[in-house]
Structure to design on (311 residues):
């Protein structure tokens, strides 16, 4: 199954401190419905495409999101929407969107920056967003939509990984996945980059504490899927590597807005993650390691990773 990606606009109702989208991009004209339909039509010419990731900005602000989801899911294609889920706290909005799609082919991935309201809202600088997002996710689950809670790991929150996992366990049923992810540093000031930077091998004791809690829950019958993306394998002992996604394929197609209000579509693109450091080249598992964002290596170099020497 191939994956394609569409960023449908950069406007957002939050102001995350490490958002890779600029204020200028957020003000670009809205992509027309016709242009979007042409783009999706071109993507679906590849009959091996099984999933389309829909991103922004915030996709729920896009006026034709329901039409887009209908076009994708009615073809039996999986639509994965990267949303903060605030607008899904409105039951009428949720019902409207879901009436235009097939819930079995819909997945919503939503970032929670912390298990604590104050810390989450400090990152996204949007008062009341924590409760709206939680309510939105629960509305989606009530309507049978698959939900993934994403946690973007920085040096400000990595020591609380177990607390975050346990909090999500209490908040959501076990069919809700938990995804751990590093961050892309593009667009951040030098000061902000330094304040968020993580050195991945230093994460190991905190990751392993969280993984042990998950393994203990599984022994009790809990089937929650916990996994890491864009995280190098040097973030934990090899015993825990089954929790880590391996080196990803590129996108079959990638569409993104331009300042003219049109979508630019390219085919067969590489992802902006990988093992780009000299330290990675020494690693015995470099061929399977997902690495992390190219910008992390560009700004911080070899010091954020550590090669695995093997047996």
């Amino acid at each position: 199954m191939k994956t394609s990606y569409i960023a449908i606009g950069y406007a957002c109702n939050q102001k995350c401190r490490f958002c890779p989208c600029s204020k200028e991009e957020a003000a670009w004209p809205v992509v027309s419905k016709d242009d979007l339909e042409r783009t999706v039509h071109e993507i679906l010419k590849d009959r091996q495409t099984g999933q389309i990731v829909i991103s922004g900005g915030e996709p729920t602000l896009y006026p034709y999101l329901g039409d887009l989801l209908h076009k994708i899911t009615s073809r039996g294609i999986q639509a994965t929407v990267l949303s903060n889920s605030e607008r899904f706290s409105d039951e009428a909005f949720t019902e409207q969107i879901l009436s235009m799609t097939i819930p079995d082919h819909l997945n919503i991935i939503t970032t929670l920056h912390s298990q604590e309201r104050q810390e989450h809202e400090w990152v996204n600088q949007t008062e009341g967003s924590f409760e709206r997002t939680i309510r939105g996710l629960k509305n989606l689950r009530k309507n049978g939509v698959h939900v993934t809670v994403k946690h973007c790991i920085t040096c400000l929150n990595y020591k609380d990984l177990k607390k975050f996992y346990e909090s999500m366990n209490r908040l959501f049923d076990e069919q809700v996945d938990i995804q751990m992810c590093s961050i892309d540093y593009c667009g951040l000031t030098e000061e902000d980059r330094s304040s968020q930077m993580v050195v991945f091998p230093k994460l190991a004791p905190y990751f392993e504490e969280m993984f042990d809690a998950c393994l203990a829950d599984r022994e009790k019958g809990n089937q929650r899927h916990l996994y890491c993306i864009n995280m190098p394998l040097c973030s934990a002992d090899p015993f825990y590597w089954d929790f880590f996604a391996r080196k990803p394929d590129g996108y079959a197609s990638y569409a993104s807005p331009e300042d003219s209000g049109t979508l630019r579509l390219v085919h067969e693109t590489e992802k902006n993650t990988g093992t780009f450091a000299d330290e990675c080249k020494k690693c015995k598992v470099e061929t399977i390691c997902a690495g992390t964002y190219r910008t992390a290596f560009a700004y911080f170099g070899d010091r954020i990773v550590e090669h695995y020497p093997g047996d």
Remarks:
- The chain has eleven helices and eleven strands.
- The mean pLDDT is 94.
- Residues 204-219 form the longest helix (16 residues).
- The longest strand covers residues 49-55.
